[in-house]
Amino acid sequence: MMDFVRNAVKEILIMQRKSIQAGAIEQKVSRTAFGFGDAAQSLGLHPDTLRRKAAAGELKTIRIGRRVLIPASEMQRILAEGLR
Predict the structure, then answer these.
(1) Burial level of 22, CB count in 10 A (0-12/13-18/19+)?
(2) Residue closest to 42 by CA, chosen among 58, 61, 25, 18
(3) In the chain, what are the domain boundaries?
């Protein structure tokens, strides 16, 4: 019986953690565009992974001066569909 309770508590904690992470990502997506570092941190990826995808044309980017940014719409697509 204790194992059942222990496993149920673990599942609840995991679900709460995922909910908190999803909420944090949704708050960050309210921005217009993200640098590679911020986008990677929000998605749990390495910035170089995003840079490689952008160089291969698999990730939409915008250039503002010398900065290359990932639009919020592309971040939402990645969250919904995953990174190709």
Answers:
(1) exposed
(2) 25
(3) 2-81
